[in-house]
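[SOLVED] Need 3D model of a two-part complex

Original post:
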Amino acid sequence: MLVALKIKRFDPERKPAAWWSNYKLEAAPGDRVLDLLVRAKDELDGSLTFRRSCAHGICGSDAMRINGTNRLACKTLVRELGSRITVEPLLGMRVEKDLVVDMEPFLASYRSVKPYLINDEPLPADGRERRQSPAERLRFDDTTKCILCGCCTAACPVFWADGEYVGPAAIVQAHRFLFDSRDRGAGEHTAALLDMKGVWRCRTIFQCTLSCPREIKITQAIAEVKQAIVLGK
Amino acid sequence: MQSLINFTYASTHYRPREGMIAFLLHRISGLATLLFLSIHIVDTSLVYFYPQYYNDFIGLYRLPGFMLAEIALMAGVIYHGLNGFRIALFDLVLPSAWTIQRERLSVRLTILLAAILWLPAGIIMGGNFIGYTFLGWH
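Solution:
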């Protein structure tokens, strides 16, 4: 099938800095949007710029807005979209070039929840790992799936209005450690979530859950973090 | 102001789903209610500060545009209350119910219930609008 690929371009050194590129490409229904982008760059316009690494939905580097919704280009098939495909950069983040956005503020929010296990207690007597039952592991299983692609945060209207809002991805990371039975750092994980830029800015709009390529129940996780803060977990 | 510009640009460049529509309706109805309450406080305060102007001000409520806006405001108040209850119920009591299917259904049910509850008030207020505007009621 012939696909009309329309890409939002941006180059700060060019005038005008923003424009649209249109390409016509022959594609199979099973091709991914990433395949089309790679072909457009290799065969038609070498200046086209986008991030991609693993190309298999794990690294999370090719998050972008495809036909108006945040998705991973490597997980989106042409057959899901039809013959007209529009690709734009994520919203709410500064565009550096074409589809590449500045992820640093997003990653700063991620770091603010201290996304690592905090436990200063002595190791078990046998000196090996801190044990955990399957049920305890299952409690935070869903939020371990996050790949930090930014689809959720860049789909959040609260984040669009205020880029300093910590955003759903960071709250998901806090959830992952808050509900880990081995963790003792609840206060440290939630410290960045308590102020006006924290978890209470969430308006349960649900865009994060709908845009997550890993199908994490993000709104549920955020509600559980709110409950944990108010009631204790 | 920059927040409003950023939000307006982004929300018109992202495909909206039920949650986004529910959020926008919630914000608009909340702001409309706040505006009405502010006007209402002003008109009531006239009784104390400038009683001679009170009847003139109340006359504004009989203007066709104002009466139509009040009918819409009634829908907004009912929706705002129901949607707030929906979010509080899911967020505070049933977080595990925040699934995509239930969220979509709950938004649609909230809008439907708001419309049903608004209907009696809408009929009464609509009757008043027609009477005062076209039938010469005083």
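Edit: The helical segments of chain B are 2-11, 18-49, 51-59, 64-93, 100-134.
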